[in-house]
Structures are given as structure tokens and as C-alpha cells.
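Minutes, project check-in
Item: structure for the 270-residue chain
Input as provided by the requester:
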Amino acid sequence: MTDLSLPNLPGGLPDKRQVAASFSRAAASYDSVAELQRDVGSELLRRLPEDFVPARWLDMGCGTGYFSRALAEKFAASAGVALDIAEGMLNHARPLGGATHFIAGDAERLPLQDSTCDLVFSSLAVQWCADFASVLNEAYRVLKPGGIFAFASLCVGTLYELRDSWRQVDGMVHVNRFREFGVYQQLCAGSGLKVVSLETQPHVLHYPDVRSLTHELKALGAHNLNPGRPGGLTGRARILGLIEAYEQYRQAQGLPATYQVVYAVLEKPL
């Protein structure tokens, strides 16, 4: 069993090329295991203002284009741009349609002109960005006055069961260190965007065994790219130790994996 989890954040973020390559390789398998991603993105869509109809939207970190297609269906008369850092994801998404344009790009340096979007939508992508202040600055720049930046991300508390179980086994880095929710609050408050809503909500998935969880993380492309991670395959003794430690969390539904999701709706002042 290989050691799998999510890449790290400030204090040792993996090279963006590694992140892009990992998700590119996972493009074909991603949607088959993306239950959390679909649930979170759908919840983010529901949080948009009821009477809000953008003329042009950006799906930032579009992945396989699942929510680009959802945005195109919800806002049928709008033009849409699907953007992702992973070329493999774009190659998968493009034939399925939804967006008017598919662009390879970085959320910290958007290849778009100023004041060209009414909506920037980003579901479970910005946790890969080391400089979230730049993400906010770029969203502010490309939004028209009155435009909306809606994002879902992950914060501290995500995969704590897996982290704590590994901690009982060895001292290696196995699970990502996410931003504190307070950091999101601070950066959003100082972004120049009006905070319409900003909150956290746990999403818990259940698995029959540890291997099912790690297989899903691999299929999502969410490999452990942390500095300090173990090299190569994880030894059998450590895997058995992980399984034993994780069993302490078992519930009637199975082994829980908690994702602490940040939901935000921000508005650019008129």
C-alpha cells in the first residue's frame, strides 16, 4: 500500500508541477470516486444568491469540468471559462463541453483581463494554493463590480482521523497541514471583497477499511507530496499499525474520514 493523502500548504507546499501532474494522471478515474467533490460543489452552488445571474463565469480549478457543466446548465444564457492548472484535467473536460473556453492557468496568476467576470466559482481547488492572498487579489481583479467570488476549500480538521492514526505509527509526514479557518477569515476580511458568508461545515465519508480510503485518495490524484514524506512503498508493519490505530475510530457506518469544508461567498463592491 502506498502512502497517500493531500499535498502540504505553507511551510512546504509541493511544486505546482507535481500537483498538476498528479491530478492530470487521475483525470480518467477522478469522477468515479468524487462523491465529496460533487456534494461540496453542489452545496456551494446552492449558496449563490437566488437572483444572481452572471453574464460570464469562471470555474477556477475546474478539474474534470463537472461543475463547469453544472454552471452552464444553471446559467444557460451565460458564457463560461473553465480553468485548471492540470492539462490532463482540461483534456478530459474539454470534449464534455459546458464552458465556452478551457484554459490552463494558475489561480494565483489568472490569465484573464480585469473586470471581465461576474462570477468566480471555485470548489475544492484553492487549498492547493500557497498564497491565498494572491488568489483573493486575482479574484477581485477579474470580477466586475457587484461580481461574486464563491469558493469551497478545506481547513484544519480535515482527515484528522488519518493524521492521528499515522501519528501513532511513526513521525513521518503523511497528511496535509491545512490552513486554520481563522486565516481564511483574516485574509477574506482584508481582501477588499465584502464577506457575504464564510463558515465551516464538516463532511464525513465512511469506508469499510483503510485501503478503500487510500485507494480513493489515489484515484482522486490526492497523493502525499509533502516534504518529509516516506519514500517509496510504506512497509507492511507500518500499514498494519495504521490499520490498528484507525480501527479505534470505527463507527456503525464504517471508518470515518472527516473533511472540514470552508464555504465562502464574497462580493466585489460596486
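Outcome recorded: Residues 16-267 form a domain with the Rossmann fold fold (CATH 3.40.50.150).
No further action items on this chain.
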